[in-house]
Amino acid sequence: MTGPSGVGIGWRSEIDGFVAGLPGLRFVEVVAESVPAGGPLPAGLAALRQRDVAVVPHGVRLSLGGTEPVDPARVAHLAAVAELVGAPLVSEHIAFVRAGGLEAGHLLPVPRSREAVEVVCANVARAQAELPVPLALEPIAALFDWPDEELDEADFLTEILDRTGAGLLLDVANVYANARNRGADPVALLDRLPLDRVAYLHVAGGAEHGGFYHDTHTDRVPPAVLDLLGEVCARHRPPALLLERDGNYPPAPVLRAELDALAAASGFPVVT
């Protein structure tokens, strides 16, 4: 799967100026639903494209894990945004966001059952048939598991990837959050994941609340997640990794330091 390379950052209008000032930036990711399918691109994204910075649309509303077939209009929007930005690939979540016509407004975990594998694979196939570029799938962070699950996380994910041919968007912070909240070893999970299928990595910050670790995207990346990033890259370094930040933006020097820390932990060149 041809995709982005190097260290990137999630493009948000609030940090447009900061992102524009990163001299070594090779790619950004944008929430697909925030971009009008018919254009025009936000000026900051258009300027990055003129610099040959790759733009990856990241979908949050396809509901690939929902029992209802994916909405053709949502797939068409993701496809149109991919064409608009000249994307090398697009990404979405193994999750559901709606059921019975109701929108959750949040990424919800899919039960790890044989039936759920069939549902996800069918929806991924429907999306892939309409998308102009490859699709990478991201397992989410979840605060609970469904009862009576038939597969563990590694087997569930591997079967979906094998059957669909999709790439893997591995969120290192999600791996850390899920393992910590389950009392499991995140490194043990890494050793069972198909890391050779990783299209790129996500890294994000989080914080503990009420005894659970929450993948907030508004806090700094903790040392434990940086250590886990190093473990991933020591096993199979993917072509790219991206810092997700969705609010509570720190001063520019702090954000630069966080990007530098990702580069140091992974062995990628710095972008600052």
From TrEMBL:
InterPro entries: MbnB/TglH/ChrH, Xyl_isomerase-like_sf. It comes from the Bacteria. PANTHER family: UPF0276 PROTEIN HI_1600. This is DUF692 domain-containing protein.
